[in-house]
UniProtKB/TrEMBL annotation:
It comes from the Eukaryota. Residues 162-171 have a biased composition (Gly residues). InterPro entries: Rubisco_LSMT_subst-bd_sf. This is Uncharacterized protein. Residues 43-97, 134-178 are annotated as: Disordered. Residues 44-54, 72-95 have a biased composition (Low complexity).
Amino acid sequence: MARPTLLAARVCAQMAALRTLLGVCSVLLSNFKTTLEDDRQLLDAGRGSSSSGSRGAGGGSDGPDEKAEASQQQQQQQQQQQQQQQQQQQQQQQQPELGEELRIAVQFRAERKRVLLRTIKALSNRVRIVAGMQGLREGPPAAAQTKKGERPPPATARGFATGAGGGGGGHGKPRRSK
């Protein structure tokens, strides 16, 4: 069985570390009881944005029938506006306004979720890159490899040390001092 090369070992170690980090981030994100969208809706509702649209009646009218018709339309519009206002009041009563501290806490929680989501995305991209590196091999390119029966090229441009003594770069027997 062949031993994995140094590059392959590094790639495997990186993949293991990235998967561990992805798992940790996923667990941290799953510990929240609400989603990021829920927090956004809560913040939007907590601002108390009550917008009541008041629409004006139409232009002038010529005949008595048209005046009666216009007054009926105005009454209907007023009734619709009153119903909308009542519905908005009911919704506001059902959704309590957020206090300043609670609003800040929800904003902080939402920001932590955003950071975790960005981290997961970045780690996922890194996993794809490292997974692409798994196919790479360490060593010289295939064209520079030696064929069977040929001598491999020297590893360095420096020569080999010659045996005993004379400045062989630390190879061979050490000198004796007299």
